[in-house]
Amino acid sequence: MSVSAWLEQLHDHGYRLTGARRAVVETVEKSTRALTPIEVYDMARKKYRAIGLVTVYRTLEKLEELHLIQRVHQPMGCQAFIAAGVGHQHLLLCQNCGQAAFFDGDDLDALTKAIEKKTGYQINEHWLQLFGLCADCRA
Amino acid sequence: MSVSAWLEQLHDHGYRLTGARRAVVETVEKSTRALTPIEVYDMARKKYRAIGLVTVYRTLEKLEELHLIQRVHQPMGCQAFIAAGVGHQHLLLCQNCGQAAFFDGDDLDALTKAIEKKTGYQINEHWLQLFGLCADCRA
DNA sequence: TTATTATTGAAAACCATTTTCAATAAGTAT
DNA sequence: ATACTTATTGAAAATGGTTTTCAATAATAA
Prior knowledge:
- The structure is a homodimer.
- By secondary structure, chain A is an alpha+beta fold.
- The first copy, chain A, folds into 2 domains: 3-83, Orthogonal Bundle (Arc Repressor Mutant, subunit A); 90-138, Dna Ligase, domain 1.
- Chain A is built from 6 helices and 5 strands; from the N terminus they run ααααββββαβα.
- In chain A, the strands form 2 sheets. In chain A, strands 4-3-5 form a 3-stranded mixed β-sheet. In chain A, strands 1-2 form a two-stranded antiparallel sheet.
- In chain A, α2 packs across α3, α2 packs across α4 (53-65) and α3 (37-44) packs across α4.
- The longest helix of chain A has 13 residues, at 53-65.
- Chain A is globular.
- The structure holds a DNA duplex.
């Protein structure tokens, strides 16, 4: 995805393209780590001085509705957002710098079948997230 | 674990055993679903009328410190707590009634090795959580 | 029983998020 | 270009969950 693709999505859904929204989109789309609303605010303010925190909240809300971003759950808090992965992907987070990477290829079929048999549950979804150190932070 | 084992743990760590704490412990230890502070408050109040919400927060804090309870992350919020699993266990949650079950036996070694090779990350931890319908809610 | 001090509940403070509202500016029609 | 409609904006106020403050209370040790 790209900044222009996000703006197009917003436009196609009847939302107007404003300076504030461009600043938020450019900030979040380019970030490789999850950002909290305040972090987005501070960064977006450098691109569009007059933006208000309220508008950041409102824009993040819309981006989440359009599935362009997703909330990231971490031990320290669950208020951060990152550009959404495509299809069935999971997050891998660096515990030191916060750098995020998506991965796919998890096959939990055998596990879920076994759990279904053992517990009687019907399993519909799973959340998987890996934590570690990115290449840079290992060094 | 049992209520008395939790109380013993609290006592062994220098905490006094009070009516308010007993009420919180009895509530959380017996619950099969994750409870938010307010829910614990409402339930504990039936056992100990005079308890304050503040004491619920403070007691949950201590129980988490002692690893007797753990925070449960869900799409709708991450403020709920449940009796902690033992060893390497993950949660399976009913999307309808909230019923929780622990399971173990997940083997992600092959997956993490592959991801490590592909991404250059060193993987230290993983979060895995399953969602579905419990036996009762399927019917 | 008495003394010590952790614990308590109520009220106030705090902080992230949401709502309200009048002014502004994006998109559309003229 | 120009005017018009109305979504969007930022500031301020409101909200709601969580934390802090503080004097009174009650659990434990002496």
